[in-house]
Write a structure and sequence with these properties.
The chain is built from five helices and five strands, in the order ααβββαβαβα. It is α/β, with parallel strands linked by helices and about 150 residues long. Strand 1 and strand 2 form a beta hairpin. It is rod-shaped and about 105 Å long.
Length: about 150
Amino acid sequence: MKNPLNARPEKKLEPDLTSTLDVVFLLLIFFVCTSSFKAPEKLLPTNLGGSGAIKVDAPQTQKERDLGRIVVRLVATESGVERVVNGSRVESLDEVERALVALSEIDPDVPAIVDPDREVPLESVLDVYDAARRAGLATIKFAASPEALAR
C-alpha cells in the first residue's frame, strides 16, 4: 500500500542539451576560423592556345619600345619542356628565373609574355608564371591564339 505522504512525483528523464550545444558552437567557430577562402585552382584557364600566338602588330608603349617585351616560349618535346627566353634556349627553370631577374632589374614594368605550346602541361606554364612573379615583374601576360579568344 502506498503512503500518499511519501509519494514522490514522477520525473521524466530528459537529457541536458546545454553542454551539447556548447560543443556544437565551439566546433562551428573552429571550422569557420580555420577554413581558407581562396579561389579553387580549377577555375584557372587550361586552354592557353597554340604557340606563336603573339601578334606582332600590337601597339607598344614607350617602355616596351625601349626594352622590348620579355617572351618566354615553352615547347613540348619528347624529353620534357624546352624553355626559350627572348630567343635564347634556357636549360632549367632556375635559369629562366635568373634571366627574368636580370631583365626585371632593368625595368620591372616591362611586360613578360608566356607563350606555351598546346601540348605543354599547365604545371610548367604556372612554374614560369611563378618565376616571373618572384623575379619582380609587374605585368605577366599569356599568349593566346585568335581561335581561343573568339570563343
